[in-house]
Amino acid sequence: MAHRVAMFRDMDMGAEEGLKRMAEAFRHQLRGWLVTGQCRGLVLEDAGRVVASVLLLLKESVPTPVTPLSVRGYLFNVYTEPSHRRQGLAARLTDAALDLARELGIEIMELHASLEAEGLYQRMGFVPTSEMRLVMGSGIKTPKQWKHRR
């Protein structure tokens, strides 16, 4: 949870009150996913302290001509503590998560990259897609990270 909050804080995405509400709601959701195996967490430690992490969610999808499978992998919450950045930890964790997904038979992996991480994921073979979003909740502003992505 600390990494999820820190990730959004680093991206300047959300006020502290919103981060607190998100953490409370997500803690319950993540616990359920981890118990059922729908989500897997991978971490790297330094002297017993978690310094980098990633989550792999197995999410329902619809079959397409690309793959008939109704499950896709979704990588999220890829985070490295500032003191351990630029050492390849995010790439190592992403590689490990991709290996796990292959073992599970996943054929398509998705993620939403921060602007700073796009190059890393493109070097790993990820390609930008045509995904679009519409924010429909009243009072919710479209985060600046979602704008000007092309």
Quick description:
This protein is an alpha+beta fold and 150 residues long.
Main features:
alpha+beta; 4 strands; 150 residues; four-stranded mixed β-sheet
Q: Helix amount, in percent?
A: 25-40%
Summed up, the helix count is: 4
**What is the terminal-to-terminal distance?**
30 Å
The main sheet comes to: 4 strands, mixed
- State the low-pLDDT regions, or none: none
Provide the β-strand percentage band. Answer: 15-25%
Widest sheet: strand order?
1-2-3-4
Radius of gyration: 16 Å
Mean pLDDT: 91
Q: How many E strands?
A: 4
Explain this structure to me?
The chain has 150 residues and is an alpha+beta fold. It is 34% helix and 22% strand. A hairpin with a 2-residue loop joins strand 1 (39-46) and strand 2. Helix 1 packs across helix 2 (16-36). The longest helix has 21 residues, at 16-36.
Mind sketching the topology for me?
Elements: H1 2-10, H2 16-36, E1 39-46, E2 49-60, E3 71-80, H3 89-103, E4 109-111, H4 118-123
